[in-house]
Input
Amino acid sequence: GIVATNARRREQAQVSSDRPVCLIGGNAPPDTRLHAMIEGAGWAGAGDTLSESWSRLGPLVAEGSADPFAAIARQLHERTEGNRAFFDRGSAIVAEAKRSGASAALLWYAEEEEAQVWHIPEQRRALADANIPTLLLTRRDWRAQDGVDQEIQTFLKEIAA
Output
């Protein structure tokens, strides 16, 4: 089961584009409308939607272990999803930006968010240290009907100039 599921983990989609990539961090948006806004500015959007984040299988589980239960437990402990996970969120967002080839990032948080926003300073500092321009979008309408499309367009066009 570990080998078969690891094969599925390796198949999960990666962003490949000939356009510059912008990572969506913060809250996973409910659908691809933020991705479409990024694409409207001539960029490719990277980052999971809410349903994609829920269906992620997580990191690989060590194969060939003498104790497969311990290998699964280690994988669960190392996961970087959710509000209660213990990991360096600054390093994690920079690693995700590098993995996706992003040269810009959005940190998008819905109005109702009250847990992940505490990590904004750490993430912004890490992205700045990695020279990745970042647009901070907090307390936003969950449906993205609050003018965020214009803010994204302006931000990405300024970077491209």
The chain has seven helices and four strands.
